[in-house]
Amino acid sequence: MIQPLRLGLLSMLPLLAAGSALAQTAPADGAPQLIRLAGKPGAALPGTTLRQLPTDSRQLLRETLGLRPSDDLRPLRTETDERGELHERFQQYFKGVKVEHGQYTVHRAAGVLSGEFKPVPAALSTKPALNEAAALRAALATVGARRYMWDDAAAEAGLRRISQDAKATYRPSGELVVVADYRQNGATGPLVLAWKFNIYAEEPLSRAYVYVDAQSGAVVLQDAIIKHAHGPVEALPATARPVARPAAPRGVTTSATATFATRYMGTRTALTDLFNGSYRLRDYTRAAGIETYNLRTGTNQGTAVDFTDADNNWTTAEFNNTAKDNAALDAHFGSQSTYDYWMSTHGRNSINGSGGKFINYVHVRVGFDNAFWDGAAMNYGDGNTQFRPLTALDVCGHETGHGICQATANLVYQNESGALNEGFSDIWGAAVEYSVDPTKQTWVVGEDISLNSGGLRSMSDPLSTGVLSPCPANYRGRRWNFGTTDNGGVHTNSGVLNHWFYILSVGKTGTNEQQQAYAVTGIGIDKAARIAYRAERLYLTANSDYRSARMFTIQAATDLYGAASPEVVAVTDAWFAVGLGTSSAAAAGTQAQCLPDDAAVLTASASAVSLCAGETLNLTATAAYPTTRRLRSFTSVALPDASTAYTAVPVFSTTVVSGTTLQHGLETLYRSSFADLQGVRVRLSHAQPGDVALRLAVRNSSGVTTYVSLATALPAAGSTAAANTLDLTFADNASATLPATMSGSTLAGTFRPATALGSITPGTLVSISLEAQDGVAGNTGTITSVELLFRRLATDVPSVRWIGPGLDVTGATASTQPAGPAAGGTAVYRYTVLASDPFFGCTSLQTVDVNVSQPLLKADALQADLCAGRGQAFGPISLRVTADDSIAGQTYRWTGPNGYAATGKRRSTTSSIGGLLRYTVSTSTPGSNCANQQQVAVLARRPVAAAPAGLDSVACAGGNIRLRSRPFENQLVGPYQFSGSAAIPDFSAVGVRIPLVVPGTTEGFFDLRGIRVSLNHTYVGDLTLYIIAPDGTRVLLSRQNGATGQGHQNTLFVDSVGARVLSNGASPFAGSWQVDDANGFAKLRNTPMAGTWNLFVVDGGPADVGTVTSWGIVTRSNNTIWSGPNGLTATGDNVLAALPATAGHYRYIGTTTVPGGCTFRDTVDVRVAPGSEWRRRQSTDLALAANWTCLPTATTDAEVRGAANAQPLLSTGLVQVRNLTLRAGTALALDGGTLEVYGTLTLESGASISGTDGTLSLRGAAVVLNAPSSTALRIPRLLVNLPAAADTARLAQMLFVTKALTLQRGILKTQASSLALMTGGTIAETADAYVSGRVMTSGLVSASTSQDFGGLGMSLSQTSSNLDVSVIRVTDQAIGRTPARTSIRRYYEVAYPANIVVTATVRQSYRDAELNNLAEADLQPYRAGTLAGPWLPQARTLQNTSLNYVESTGSIQGIWTLSTPTAMLPTRNAATSFSVQAAPVPFGASGFSLSVQALRPERAASVAVYDLMGRLLVQRPLTIAAGLNTVALPEAGRLAAGVYLVRVVLNGEAQTLRVTKE
């Protein structure tokens, strides 16, 4: 895009067209722009192919302006002009906050975009540091009024009465906006967050939008709402805000035609209404009404009354009274005439364009010398010292014009935009007056009301002193107000627009203040008004200045009359006449505003004249000004005749007047450079130049003025009958001196001054003036211009800038990679280099044209949707190039899936795979080799292969069945979900990226339904959410919606008609919402879908945090319609259908219809079984409902049929069953989850249960476990939780528990079998819930530790050595017989490796129910080798009757139980038939000897020596005689030092000794 040129550049040039409007960075200063779209016929240059523009205007703006995620343009209004063309205006927002004055309009018929877009810094916070109340206080402190409208109870009551709103008030409320800080460079000042208030002050009168910086509290702009006809007025009384009255008055009213004896327009007819017997100045035939009220020199509009008349003949005698009531007749007639003008000429229905009411207030305050528009009504004073009553027709049109501007361009009432606001009002005043009475002074504003002058302003001669307010006729020329008074000169600088309109209407020939000749042919006031109105209504925006007004009026004329029409020529030349831009006849490159002697010398070149799209183009420029810098004064100064004093013409002055110096600040650069003054040029006309002396007056910073004589007397003229013209340059290096006489009436040349310029060194300059003296009487003349010729300083250089398609770079060099024409072909791209004078704003330019090529290439497939046939094969795919350059020799290369490659414009291929198939065609232009490529996508659908034959679905009678249609080949079905916690970085431009991988092939596809997001954030209005597909395609989900809400709660972002719009909603968002992306999900149509998708969440504001908890891709299912038994109809690719109540075979048919007219059929055969049956169907999961004919319950029976590679597995979940049968060969793996059995668990031959971590839960009142072998049941966890404590579960076969046995309620009886608790397993029992019968386990009893065998009830602790011990616990069985010779109903069998004697602490636990009527306090441990005894009593070392255990110490091998001495178990004292001692102790290398005292001889005795690990070291038989025996063991001397156990056995009795070797 070629950017329109702005202040300091070349905004006065006609718009330069490019091949296309390309995305570009918003202008740095946010100034108004005009962008021409190449998609408009006629907008492209020769050889350019037009691109297809987005049909959505919002998207068009986003693409063209290159907006960021934080930027938004929201629809503001759509207008249809008189040509039937649409104009869509959009309001700018940043992070959800309105950007004041930021608006853009799409003019599709004209093929242009216009507006101003403010480049808001990304770091700008949208959170105010100042609250609304504090900001209002700051605003009121700045306004500084003594009284405000809301302080006036009468005004407030009047407002409520007029508005018929009991809550209406003048008290302002704040609105947060982003606005420029007008204190710094006006509309281009830095942007700030501000509170906006409508503040209406009563004393003194003012009304303005006041903007308060929401961070600092400073007032950055006051935009006046009240706009006066004559500039600022001091200390005006307040008026209440008028509010539209009802469309029709109360009571009975009749429209009537009146006769008015007006004050200024003579006798006129007008419409009034008859109400309750009197006629009022009200007309309800036009719009919502025209009402004229008498404010009775007051200030409160709520107290205004009607003007009335008895006979509707409003005569002079009645109304030309001392109160000047006839002024009301002019106001009423003026409003009717103004309404008629706008309706008939422009088709505009009232001020607001939609039939709003005209309201006039006459007799506003006492002696009020002004009129004003207050934002809703016209207010007219009665005049005083300067004016008569201000209700003249052109003033009425003027004030109404402010209302028109408010409703259209809404120009800010400051500086140039404010001057345009006033200028347009003057234009409409003239146009209305001309439409009613062309004989009046159309081009003088306020001629009827002025008391002491010819009018208020002159549009034909703005500089005229014959009017009250002389104005500039030239842009930034004479009388231009450079200061801040009158809001930056809005009533003065408006003269330039006035004069332009006058010249455009009637034409003019002359020379402007830039000394440029112009000739304009007028087009008439009607055409001129049409152009002005179209520009104001449709193109101008709030901060438009004169340069943009020129640009927009040229465009408006082009819209109405054509690009090369006389009207466009006239508009262009009229602007040239007032000093803006070039004339229509100027060739390209002509200087704009810069005079020829000031023009920069420019050269421009490009690295290539032709290139391919995307290649690098280097642009180079040189720019230099002439070596002489000319400081000029074009002010004409008349020389007094016969004067003894010199007349000064100031040329150089460092004094700032009206906001600038004489040379626009250039003096600061040259104030120390008098030595560089090379010459002085003076132009004058005089009847006798010989009477004139010239000198320079040079004043320095010390206040000393030095004079340099240029000529003591100019050459004398031979004739004084006419003026003689001289153009003289004085320079020290000139070779000629002034002649004494002139040979004719003209003289031009360069001459030496009378005193050398270099003869003085004044120091730092303050001012330089040319002074002239005419010392002889009789002849007069004028100095017409003066130029100081300085040697240009090295620092006085132009500002250079390159602009062009997608380019806007400051500097002499630039690089760009131009994109090709969107639709292919070759386009001429024009790049323009601008050299701007930084002091005077004039600009020079040069252009470079470059041919940018990109082959035209469009392609498609005839079959965008392809379906497999009956044989599952695909038909042909017809690929074709539909648009190209058709150059001889041009080739086309196709590539695609499965290595497809072909050449040609039309190809046919057949795919062997289904899915989203992408074919790429590429081409290059012969000669240039510029390449382009297009992608063609074909969605080929083919269902995956059917299920294996003979494997029917099985379900239960009366249950449900899941009907699933086959997915298509490479169809991705999800779900795809991220769950976790991803922190959102605060105030980060990067944000957080959360990837989500969609597995699949290149051809994978899904039908996207939406994107689901859940997140929490303390200020969700800061957040922008978007996704990026695997190929980089980006879709905006939400741009800073929701303000202070908490986030998104399972929000589904969709792209569907009727979905809720995020910007209209409030956070937290839940349910479905339309994505913010203008193109929605359509842009994902051809993107690869398998790969990594990314969700980005960007926080655009500080001080708030949050996290993303989940996001996912939601896909749509196939649209399958099912039919089946019992009249079934259902829709979906996964539906639940009811089964018949009768067992048998049934068929269900699913029909899927897809785009392309293809239909696929799925058949599901179902065998309805009478009960629950598990068989692997979808997986090995025992809990998966799909594997069961119907899920079993606690009250139904089931069977499980496993097979090789199809065995059941329970890893999670719960399966409940009453009676469960595992059929032969079934191996159930309990790796997790719970299997609950309420009846009988039966394993057939070869069936088994094992696993890693699952639970078998026994829940029934009489559960029985039957297994075919002792190894069939290896349960990780066994849980017994029966309905009642007395209930019993029975184990009919050996059962192994590998991890845990838990009894919560009820009894588990092992019957004749055993329950084995594997090493490391645990058992948890209660007093009432326990195992009855045998439980066996084992464990390592380590030295100095305790082993409780998983909680079996016995614990052992010993200090000798590590020992593997096995324990069998038997409960509910006593030893011996009752009532005598018995034990408790529990005993333990302890065993460990033979030939080891271990002494340990043995703790035996018991339940109270096992005491067997024995006295608990008398319990004592007993040990025996067999159940038959003999039982050896063991000394009780510890007893705890609360915790139910008894401890003793002794040898641990054998059978242990608890009894009492009175119970009389069969007992025998230990080893009473012999005793044994060892000597010496300790022993040494000779070993040791045993002394054995025996009661009787024993031939089968033995002795053995063990180490503490139980290993046998020495063993031999003994023969023992009755009496004392000595047994020597010398072989023990070979043992290593340590402790050993010696065991002697006689007659089955044994004794053990501990011996030590040193």
Number of helices: 13
Structural class: mainly beta
Q: How many discrete structural domains?
A: 10
Strand content: 35-45%
Catalogue the unreliable spans. 1-28, 39-51, 233-252, 587-592, 947-951, 1467-1471
Overall, the morphology is: elongated
- Name the helicity range: 10-25%
Task: Give the strand tally.
Answer: 103
Distance between the termini: 106 Å
Radius of gyration: 54 Å
User: Oligomeric state of the chains?
Assistant: single chain
Average pLDDT score: 86
Strand and helix layout:
Blueprint: E1 33-36, H1 57-65, E2 71-80, E3 86-94, E4 97-107, E5 112-116, H2 132-143, E6 147-148, H3 153-163, E7 175-180, E8 191-203, E9 206-213, E10 219-224, E11 227-228, E12 253-261, E13 267-275, E14 278-280, E15 282-283, E16 290-298, E17 305-306, E18 308-309, E19 313-314, H4 316-319, H5 326-346, E20 358-364, E21 371-373, E22 378-380, H6 393-407, H7 415-436, E23 444-445, E24 457-458, H8 485-489, H9 495-506, E25 507-511, E26 517-521, H10 525-539, H11 546-561, H12 566-577, E27 601-606, E28 610-612, E29 617-624, E30 628-633, E31 637-639, E32 647-653, H13 666-670, E33 677-686, E34 692-700, E35 705-711, E36 724-730, E37 746-751, E38 765-774, E39 781-791, E40 799-804, E41 807-810, E42 813-816, E43 825-836, E44 843-854, E45 857-861, E46 865-867, E47 876-884, E48 892-896, E49 900-903, E50 906-910, E51 915-924, E52 931-941, E53 953-956, E54 960-964, E55 976-984, E56 988-998, E57 1008-1017, E58 1023-1028, E59 1034-1039, E60 1047-1054, E61 1060-1061, E62 1069-1074, E63 1091-1099, E64 1106-1115, E65 1120-1124, E66 1128-1131, E67 1134-1138, ...
Parallel strand pairs: 4-7, 12-19, 16-20, 20-22, 28-44, 36-37, 46-52, 53-69, 60-62, 61-62, 70-71, 71-74, 72-75, 73-76, 74-77, 75-78, 76-79, 77-80, 79-81, 80-82, 81-83, 82-84, 83-84, 83-85, 84-86
Antiparallel strand pairs: 1-5, 2-3, 3-4, 4-5, 6-8, 7-8, 8-9, 9-10, 11-21, 12-13, 13-14, 14-18, 15-16, 16-17, 21-22, 23-24, 25-26, 27-29, 29-42, 30-39, 31-39, 32-38, 33-36, 33-39, 34-35, 34-38, 40-41, 40-43, 43-44, 45-47, 47-50, 48-49, 48-51, 51-52, 54-67, 55-64, 56-63, 57-60, 57-64, 58-59, ...
Helix pairs in contact: 5-6, 5-7, 6-7, 7-9, 7-10, 9-10, 9-12, 10-11, 11-12
